[in-house]
């Protein structure tokens, strides 16, 4: 649900090391048993790529297409539909912050400002010069009673983030 | 309970009884609290008697549309020899709504039970639970609970020794509000872009993987085990107003209110009691200006309408709005209605899947016109322009996302026209840079 415009897909990660080998391959095989088609394993497969590499490069799209028996163009169409998949490298820690109406009514914009300032990102969608953070604005995170929620690295959901709590939260992500 | 605040005596706690009680998250903890009795009982009943009991209870869908659940289940073909699917909609992305998240975080086994009963009732061996990608805590709790339910024999080839196969598969979304729409969600599970499908065919004929499918919201399914244990009559008796609205309802209250949280009320509770008694009213010195009662997709109510309405499906329709997903957004006298409506329009413009011209163009232009007004460059003709756009966006598209964008605009202009006029006449300073 990122609101930040990112460049079109097309990033390249240099020499592409295959993702679906060893344990990751085994996990994918496990997914094959849970759905009647291989195509249905596309979202899980893309999550595995993003977990392993931090983003989904053009060669990774090709690899996913191959293991699932669909075309790279098809995979790209799906990747770009869903806003949580990154088609370009992002900072070491990726922060999504909600600014939709309910959070907006409770000061979400102040939280965004504090995050942009203290991470050194400056702008939404930009990565800080030290490569540590990227901050994006997103739509409702489904926790509107706890303004303002943020999600860090697709893994940590943190409720009730006000500007005064920002330094302590950022310190957890070296 | 008014989670995260302590329970209020005026609530009727059924689904939220164990919110905040980490002990309820494990299989044993859940069983000690009376859990899994509903599933065990259901497995001794026939699918038909389960559906009859749910019909009797009057339970209606909690995902937004309020369709009677028992009736929906009865649409599934019988004896067709095809695999059937149950899908649980845990995509919860409607601004203002945050109840399904608490059900999954605190009572994951309650949802598993509801899904298992639903699957058995509609002749499905497999249920997919579609959890939005951002819900990392619910994902963790559900993953753990499903694994435990398999290990303890509640799920699998022989659920609780009944001979019935019931599998639950968790599917993680990846960021798209539109995937909460039932057919978009099915496409998303199938590994496609989340575009809603044209209906018919309806899911009961051709849903997930083109097979007969029922889709229900988390809260709907979580209510089912309670109906199994305590009976449809009991559930039906939880009603303070219209007999077509029964049971308890989790209301997610947020925005400019003293104690935001999830409040479980009996259907028909006055909104005034919810706002002023249970939620502690507005912030000191503030007065109520507006309420969006059913998630951001329903018409905005002014204070008079809000303070006199009853919280159930019919009560909110009578007051000119809808219960929707029951995400209640409260705004006090400091709220700038034009700005808030613009922000909502921007949400819909961003989330439109862009298949339908009326929606793709309509949501984008609505946002731009509102932005122009906020920049002090609006004109008197903008009212008609916005209303014409809204008319073109209502009832004409594949799904109702388009209508949802029009609802706050039309009701906002109707009820808060003066605030728009203030920007247009220049008596109010522009709040955004020129467009
Ligand atoms: C744009 C859009 C978004 C929706 N989002 C959700 C959602 O996040 N969760 C949900 O349960 N239902 C959502 N719905 C409603 C579903 O399409 C569907 O009606 C519901 O899941 C059916 O379950 P129920 O009968 O138990 O309510 C949405 C509908 C639309 C049109
Ligand atoms: S109304 Fe909007 S969101 Fe719904 S199908 Fe059409 S374009 Fe997509
Ligand atoms: S509006 Fe911010 S979490 Fe819902």
Can you put this structure into words, describing what you see?
The complex is a heterodimer of chains A (174) and B (435). By secondary structure, chain A is an alpha+beta fold. Helices cover 37% and strands 10% of the residues of chain A. In chain A, helix 2 runs antiparallel to helix 3 and helix 3 packs across helix 4. Chain B has 435 residues and is of the alpha/beta class. Chain B is globular, with a radius of gyration of 22 Å. Chain B is built from 17 helices and eleven strands. In chain B, a hairpin with an 8-residue loop joins strand 8 and strand 9. In chain B, strands 6-5-11-8-9 form a five-stranded mixed beta sheet. The chains are: A alpha+beta (174), B alpha/beta (435). Chains A and B meet through helix 2 and helix 5 of A and strand 3, strand 5, strand 11 and helix 14 of B. The site of iron/sulfur cluster has 14 residues of chain B, from helix 15 and helix 17.
Brief overview:
The complex is a heterodimer of chains A (174) and B (435). Chain A has 174 residues and is an alpha+beta fold.
Walk me through the topology:
The complex is a heterodimer of chains A (174) and B (435).
Chain A: H1 22-32, H2 42-53, H3 58-68, H4 72-79, E1 93-98, H5 101-104, H6 108-119, E2 133-138, E3 150-152, E4 156-158, H7 166-171
Parallel strand pairs in A: 1-2
Antiparallel strand pairs in A: 1-3, 3-4
Chain B: H1 27-32, H2 37-42, H3 47-57, H4 69-74, E1 85-90, H5 100-106, H6 108-121, E2 126-131, H7 136-151, E3 167-172, H8 182-189, E4 213-217, H9 218-230, H10 232-237, E5 248-255, E6 261-266, E7 269-270, H11 271-278, E8 288-292, E9 301-302, H12 303-307, E10 310-311, H13 313-318, E11 327-332, H14 337-351, H15 357-374, H16 381-393, H17 401-425
Parallel strand pairs in B: 1-2, 1-4, 2-3, 5-11
Antiparallel strand pairs in B: 5-6, 7-10, 8-9, 8-11
FE2/S2 (inorganic) cluster is lined by residues 98, 100, 102-103, 140-144, 149 of chain A.
């Amino acid at each position: 649900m990122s609101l930040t415009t990112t460049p079109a897909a097309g990033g390249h990660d240099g020499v592409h090391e295959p993702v679906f080998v060893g344990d990751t391959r085994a996990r994918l095989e496990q997914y094959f048993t849970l759905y009647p088609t291989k195509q249905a394993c596309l979202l899980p497969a893309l999550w595995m790529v993003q977990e392993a590499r931090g983003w989904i490069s053009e060669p990774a799209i090709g690899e996913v297409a191959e293991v699932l028996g669909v075309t790279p163009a098809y995979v790209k169409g799906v990747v770009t539909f869903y806003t949580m998949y990154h088609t370009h490298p992002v900072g070491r820690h990726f922060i999504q912050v909600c600014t939709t109406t309910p959070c907006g009514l409770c000061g979400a914009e102040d939280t965004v400002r504090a995050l942009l300032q203290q991470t050194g990102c400056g702008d939404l969608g930009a990565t800080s010069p030290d490569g540590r953070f990227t901050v994006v604005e997103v739509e409702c995170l489904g926790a509107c009673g706890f303004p303002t929620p943020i999600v860090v690295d697709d893994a940590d959901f943190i409720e009730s983030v006000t500007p005064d709590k920002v330094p302590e939260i950022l310190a957890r992500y070296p | 309970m008014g989670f995260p605040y302590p329970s209020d005596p005026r609530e009727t706690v059924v689904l939220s009884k164990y919110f905040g009680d980490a002990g309820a998250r494990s299989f044993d903890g859940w069983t000690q609290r009376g859990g899994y009795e509903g599933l065990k009982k259901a497995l001794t009943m026939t699918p038909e008697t389960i559906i009859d009991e749910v019909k009797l209870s009057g339970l209606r869908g909690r995902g937004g549309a309020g369709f009677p659940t028992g009736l929906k289940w009865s649409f599934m073909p019988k004896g067709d020899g095809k695999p059937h699917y149950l899908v649980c909609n845990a995509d919860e992305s409607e601004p203002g709504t945050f109840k399904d998240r608490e059900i999954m975080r605190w009572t994951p086994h309650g949802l598993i039970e509801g899904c298992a009963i639903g699957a058995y009732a509609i002749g499905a061996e497999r249920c997919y639970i579609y959890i939005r990608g951002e819900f990392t805590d619910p994902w963790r709790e559900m993953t753990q609970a499903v694994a435990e339910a398999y290990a303890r024999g509640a799920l699998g080839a022989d659920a609780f020794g009944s001979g019935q196969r019931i599998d639950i598969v968790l599917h993680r979304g990846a960021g798209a509000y539109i995937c909460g729409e039932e057919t978009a969600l099915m496409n998303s599970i199938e590994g496609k872009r989340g575009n809603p499908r044209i209906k018919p065919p309806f899911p009961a004929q051709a849903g997930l993987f083109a097979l007969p499918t029922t889709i229900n919201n988390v809260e709907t399914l979580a209510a089912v085990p309670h109906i199994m244990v305590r009976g449809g009559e009991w559930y039906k008796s939880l009603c303070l107003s219209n007999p077509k609205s029964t049971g308890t309802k989790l209301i997610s209250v947020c925005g400019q209110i003293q104690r935001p949280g999830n409040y479980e009320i009996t259907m028909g509770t006055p909104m005034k009691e919810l706002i002023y008694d249970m939620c502690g009213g507005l912030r000191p010195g503030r007065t109520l200006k507006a309420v969006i009662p059913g998630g951001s997709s329903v018409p905005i109510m002014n204070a008079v309408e809000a303070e006199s309405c009853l919280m159930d499906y019919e009560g909110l329709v009578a007051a000119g709005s809808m219960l929707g997903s029951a995400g209640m957004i409260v705004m006090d006298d400091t709220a700038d209605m034009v700005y808030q409506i613009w922000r909502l329009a921007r949400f819909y413009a961003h989330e439109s899947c862009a298949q339908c011209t009326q929606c793709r163009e309509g949501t984008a232009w609505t946002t731009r016109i509102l932005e122009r007004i906020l920049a002090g460059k609006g004109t008197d003709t903008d009212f008609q322009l916005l209303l014409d756009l809204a008319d073109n966006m209502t009832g004409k598209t594949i799904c109702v996302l388009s209508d949802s964008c029009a609802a706050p605009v039309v009701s906002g202009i109707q009820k808060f026209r003066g605030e728009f006029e203030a920007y247009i006449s220049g008596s109010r300073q522009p709040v955004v840079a020129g467009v």
